[in-house]
Amino acid sequence: MAGPVPLGTMIKDTAKETIQTVFIQKENMTDGVLALNQALDQEAKDLKAKAEAIDTYFKDHDMPLEGMGKKMVEEAEKNGLDWRLLAAISVRESTGGKFACIKATYNSFGWGSCKIGFKSNEQAIETVAKNLGGNNPNTARHYADKNTREILKAYNPPSIVPKYVDQVISIMNEIGDENLIAGKVSS
Predict the structure, then answer these.
(1) What is 46-185's CATH number?
(2) Which terminus of the chain faces fewer neighbouring Cβ atoms within 10 Å, N or C?
(3) What is this structure's pTM?
(4) What is the distance between the alpha carbons of residues 184 and 187, in angstroms, rounded to a whole number?
């Protein structure tokens, strides 16, 4: 038979349960924050590895856009593009800035048939990435919802440069594996 439970025991048991619940919640929260921090740390390492792959390619080929790898990767990620695409287009169009458009400043992409200039390489990268990602309402009909090959066909149609797509993809593969992960190459 159960008798009355002293009030002090009830408070002690309730306090004990509360402390256990708080501890479990804190432990789960700590694990979640730790997992999130690890994921963010890996993402930063991957971005750095990709940027270094681009900059190494530019450096090995003595190309002026060396140092723009991080900006290219950031803008590619932001606009849903393959991380190597902007670098490869710049290599195909201007040998990585060596032979950039003459009358259009900072245009290493041949953007707008070399009739559009930019204030900086960073602005050029941002603009080209935004357009190729289908995020400019004025050009979205050409690039939105397309894979890399389709984007390249729209950028420079086979009727104009028959092997353009394959040339750019070949350069992309020279820069690095599509699934490059810091510390290893995934398959």
Answers:
(1) 1.10.530.10
(2) N
(3) 0.78
(4) 10
